[in-house]
Design brief:
44% helix; 7-stranded mixed beta sheet
Length: 328
């Protein structure tokens, strides 16, 4: 009698476990697959790419998959990124999302291996340039040309009389930054003889992702009486320790719109700067949305599906006319 009771108990437990397995394994498609996906950043030290990764990782883990971050630490460099892609292939990932630093170099090197391995690819934040977009299934991120146009549009609104425009950038090979620069140039229409706007000849001015160098460049532009609008297509100067003290010295002239300061990015540090009235314009990018969509699209591709060629994520515009608030 005791033997039959134990046997029946074991059979009931086995049946229960089978039911649970069916519910978890088949009742919720996409869960528990244990696939591996990769976020390849321009640099793992860049906080914005950490935001992308954290959002993608949360989505992946909620569905039983894994997400890892690659790209190398420290200053971004296309050769390091290429080597990181090569290294991660040893783990045989089910999909790869990359923010592209140098399209041609990747195409000529690591992405030959990616393509041979048949690994699904999406880009985020920075796409492959037009001649290399066959290397990815889709792009996720900001409409970077439109972001550039919006930076210019806000500057024109704040200073409608025209003037000389300086453009600051990070690296000269970054697709997303070059697209933003193209949008700025399109909007100001510098080549039109009837345009009231002139591009500073040495623009775009690259800081090579060096925050301190960006502040030094900004100081030179603030001291240059011929420059009326300073547009940075990224966050570099605002992330340096010396930004607030530097710009504070020019607050009165900035308030008169003698000069306009406009930046891409609205990281919490940048929003604090904006709240202190130390910039006219900041335009924020939704890095969390990029991360969530990167996982979603890679998961769809890994399942044999298709994804849109382009998926734009939203921007948020912060703009203010007057930077000088007199003490009460």
């Amino acid at each position: 009698m005791m033997t039959n009771t134990i046997l029946n108990w074991r059979l009931a437990l086995t049946a229960a476990l089978l039911v649970i397995g069916v519910v978890l394994g088949f009742g919720a498609p996409g869960l528990g697959k244990g696939r591996l996906f990769v976020i390849v950043a321009k640099s793992e030290s860049d906080m914005n790419f950490v935001r992308v990764f954290n959002a993608a990782k949360a989505e992946a883990e909620a569905r039983g998959d894994r997400m890892i971050l690659a790209g190398g630490k420290g200053k971004a460099h296309f050769r390091i990124q290429d080597e990181e892609v090569r290294n991660v292939l040893a783990q045989k990932p089910n999909g790869l999302a990359i923010s592209v630093l140098h399209s041609q170099f990747l195409a000529d090197n690591s992405f030959k291996l990616v393509r041979d391995a048949g690994i699904p690819v999406v880009t985020f934040d920075s796409d492959f340039t037009e001649g290399y977009q066959s290397l990815r299934a889709g792009y996720i991120g900001t409409d970077n040309v439109e972001l550039g146009r919006e930076l210019a549009r806000q500057a024109q609104r704040l200073r409608p009389g025209g003037g000389v425009v300086a453009i600051m950038t990070g690296g000269l090979n970054d697709t997303n930054l070059n697209d933003r620069i193209r949008g700025v140039i399109e909007r100001f229409n510098f080549d039109d003889p009837k345009s009231d706007w002139t591009l500073l000849p040495r623009s775009p001015i690259p800081c090579r992702d060096n925050y301190d160098e960006a502040v030094r460049q900004l100081e030179a532009l603030l001291d240059d009486d011929s420059v009326n609008v300073i547009i940075s297509v990224g966050w570099w100067a605002q992330m340096a320790e010396g930004y607030e003290s530097l710009v504070g010295h020019y607050r009165r002239s900035l308030s008169r719109a003698d000069k306009i300061l406009a930046f891409a990015g609205a990281h919490p540090t940048q929003r604090k700067i904006f709240a202190k009235r130390l910039s006219h314009v900041n335009i924020g990018l939704d890095f969390e949305a990029m991360g969530r969509l990167a996982y979603k699209n890679l998961s769809e591709l890994a399942d044999g599906g298709t994804v849109p060629s382009v998926t734009y994520t939203p921007m948020r515009i912060y703009s203010q006319d007057c930077l000088y608030a007199p003490e009460r």
